[in-house]
Amino acid sequence: MPKRYLVTAALPYSNNRLHVGHIAGAYLPADTYVRYLRARGHEVRFICGSDDNGVAIEISALQEKTTPEKICDHFHDSQVRDFAGLRIEFDTYGGTHHPDFVKLHEQFSQNFFRRIHEKGYFTKRRTKQLFDRQADRFLPDRFVRGTCHHCGFERATGDQCEACGQMIEPLLLKNPISVISGQPAEVRETTHWYLRLSDFQKPLQEWLEKKQGQWRPHVLNFALGQIKQGLPERSMTRDIAWGIPVPLDDPDAHGKVLYVWFDAPIGYISFTAAWCAAHEGDWRGYEKWWADPDTAIVHFIGEDNTVFHALIWPAMLMADGQYQLPHVVVANNFMNHRVAGETQKISKSSTAPDAPVWVEEFLKQGLDADRLRYYLTRAAPESARTAFDPEEFIARNDNELANTLGNFVNRALSFAVRFFDGKVPDTAAQTDADRQHLVRAGAALEKVGTCLEEHKFRAGLDELMGFAGLCNEYINSRAPWTSRKNDLPDCAAALATCIHSIHYLAVMAWPFMPGTARRVLQMLNVPEAPIRWEPPPALQTGAALGQPQILFAKLEPGTIG
């Protein structure tokens, strides 16, 4: 087992709000995994931050007639609020152009570029690039839309096709259009520095093949398929104003910046260094996390980032030679939005601005964030695309959270308050059925943990809810409301077993629904302490319980629109 874990979640662009697809794709599974690791006692750092550089931010600033700085500041703060509202807790949430992080990030990114350049892995060449005559500027990849030369998707951007996931050669786009002016793009010459990915095809293939059985099959199959096709050169510089200047003493580098997908993953490293500077007094402490083989580096991403994290970023790390390669890249597919029975891609143009598909709008409704965490894990697009369905959200809340989990907790604790003075009953008359039920509790805890270690979060939640269902079957079969009248010791033992089961459920729920887990522990009157992933001890006979509460109320139809 690794001594420590460095867990990252993909940096969201600071040019828009977060939606449920973002959360289900990378941030919620990452937070769930981190909570589990910490409960197991592992040393963990959870790193993320906003992606503030590059074309996407510049486009937004142009569209909004403002500055990139103002765009970044606004959406960085919005993202921080949304993550906090969903109880997604990073050790640090940086920003590649945020005032508190930009100096260190620029230093790391430029040094990274220089080292690769000095080793000769860049090819400088005069090349053709699309140009917007009306705007009088070159058009980096995301400034262009056209028809994908791989699959024919008509709104592909010039870096990667959202439909087929393959890398795009902008000059091969059919009918390229500038997103700035909306006018057809023309071809002109410019100079850029290209990373020769082909130099790393063999080591990448060997590295990926060793991950068989450890990574999700669709991630490995996609990456290995790209290698089989042959990896092209990839330009790592851009003709835009907003970004990190290319650090070369070369007249042709003047006015150019690093490609955003060159500097963005370096943010994982620079943000770690910033955390070390703030909490340990020395930014060089990042080396323990990035250069020490006793650390496992785990990246959580959405499907559109697979090519970068499984191929380009590892190639950059190989070229640089100072850091470890990722231990695992965990990629989810897209989550769409189901509206009136039709599935739509979540985007600014296709989603109502006040729809709860936006995290900000969901939180405004005052619903407990754990409801959304639960639903997004149950509907997680781990191996195929799924859709956020408001009707399904309500059904799962009512039938699973309220009727299964919440019902059992409330029945047992309310019974203890009513007939045992709100205290833990005596276990002296415990039966084989009681002991066997607790054996099942321990088995469920182990199964949930195994699923989380294997990044099977939906399966882990299924195991949790399966045990909650067994708890309802158990209390129905033991029927303490009947034995209370003719065999009080037997009633006490059954109820004590139920209370112990609730403690198990709280531990299992912690990675998925931390707020719910804490509320349950308060109802059990368990002192506030870090959750430990181990069978919880039985509460002492006669110990006072807390006040029972309704864990999850049912929702009215239309609550989530």
Notes on the protein architecture:
The longest helix is centred in the last third of the chain and has 30 residues, at 390-419. The chain folds into 2 domains: 4-139 and 180-332, HUPs (Rossmann fold); 393-561, Orthogonal Bundle (Isoleucyl-tRNA Synthetase, Domain 1), CATH 1.10.730.10. By secondary structure, it is of the alpha/beta class. The strands form 5 sheets. A 5-stranded parallel beta sheet has the order 3-2-1-13-14, sandwiched between helices. Helices cover 46% and strands 15% of the residues. The chain has 17 helices and 17 strands. The protein has helices at residues 20-39, 55-64, 68-85, 102-118, 201-209, 217-229, 260-280, 287-290, 306-320, 359-364, 369-378, 390-419, 432-453, 457-478, 480-486, 488-509, 514-523, and strands spanning 4-9, 43-50, 92-95, 122-132, 137-138, 144-147, 156-157, 174-178, 186-196, 233-235, 237-238, 257-258, 295-302, 328-332, 335-339, 342-344, 386-388. The two termini are 45 Å apart.
